[in-house]
Structures
1.
Amino acid sequence: MTKAITSKPVTTPKEIIADVRAYSHKVYLAGLGLYGTTSQQRRKSYNEVVKTSKVIFKDLVKSGEGLEKKAKQLIDEQVKAVNKQINKLTATAKKTIKADAKIVEKAAVKVQAKVAAKKAPVRAAAKPRVAAKA
């Protein structure tokens, strides 16, 4: 470090100017030292932030992967449940359609029989004709 400035009697203006220059130079050097120190601290802090941010980023990625896996599992479970319900409803609908088709077929046979019965000529016994009176 530097020597401490001691107060001594100054006798000439040249000595005063020399002391002022020396002190000014020390102030300049103190400023440089401050700049260097803060620069080192800034660099050190920056490196710590970079290191920490890499760790945080890795942790966030890992957490995101876990959440994505859980979400995919949940979606897969929901899709399976919906597909199961669709298959169940499809089977029920097929049974209902088959049962309704049988009912419609029976009704169609009855209707066809009635229609056929109406189309067949019904021959009634012939009535004797009465001659017209003159």
Note: The helical segments are 13-119.
2.
Amino acid sequence: MHVVAPERLVQAIKRSQGYLVSHQHADGYWVGELEANTTLTSEYIFFRHLIGSVDRDREAKIVAYLLSEQLPDGGWALYYGGPSDLSTTIEAYVAMRLAGIAADALPLQLARKRIHALGGLSHARVFTKIFLALFGQFEWRGIPVIPPEIISLPQSFYFNI
């Protein structure tokens, strides 16, 4: 086991505190860029289609962005510099299909191949399955159900909400 010397730990803490204080706004807050993965972008397309309010010009720009983030193996990453992620790739694929990109377009062919290589829809995260169910592309009965009684479990129980 590697043990850090206490003085090195104190130095690291002081350097971290100094950095935070030097970047703090006069009113006491910090400003920093927050980047998200493409799932939010894909989900924006889902939302606009669900509410029936699609701006095709904006959607074309969104598709261009999604395509710019596609990895060489056909997938999309969950985080910057990461490998292809199954659910992120499924959501990007569905968003582009909703936006009118043909299933036989090369980027979507590559995405399908990657989706299958990563295990397919059955291995996707629950939220991805819920989004697909909203569009009739996944059975609602395939979505896990959590008994509402779990909310009543005490905090001392080995798991709780």
Note: Residues 77 and 83 are 5 Å apart (CA to CA).
3.
Amino acid sequence: MTPIDTERSITVTVNGVPRGARVPVRRLLSDALRHDLGLTGTHVGCEHGVCGACTVLVDGTPVRSCLVLAVQVDGAAVTTVEGLARADDDGGQVLHPVQEAFRECHALQCGFCTPGFLVTIAAGLEARNLSTEITEEEVDELVGGNLCRCTGYANIKKAVRHAADTMRRNGAELPLGNSAPLHEQGPR
């Protein structure tokens, strides 16, 4: 009888940077990001995949990182909220249009749910046809999978419309995962 491995080495490209870690085989992706890789922007709210606070992109698709084992993303590209902002040529930062819209529209209260909203909305807007204005149904769909216990969603929806308009006017200048992120080193 062969012994069962309780740990496994994984390699994941996180926010454009190849990262390796040795993780317990039952470690959740959310915990691996936070504890093993030091990326604390991904929040864990419900641990049941309901609230959306832990949403990250795996190969461009939004997933609830509290429902995915870290070993399941071995070899994948993962984008967290830390990977949305990009370094500019002067060493500063350029916020993703969704991040900028959340700031301008005051679309956050306590901020706990914000990373999940930002990642989900950014992916959704970048996947849609930017030549047309966003509909209210599309806005509702983009925010519908995330829960916010502090707001009435009005400013979050306003931020989605603002970001969509900005991206439509300027084009999606900041595609996810294509340039070096501002926070690529790990812990902040």
Note: The domain at 86-170 is CATH 1.10.150.120 (DNA polymerase; domain 1).
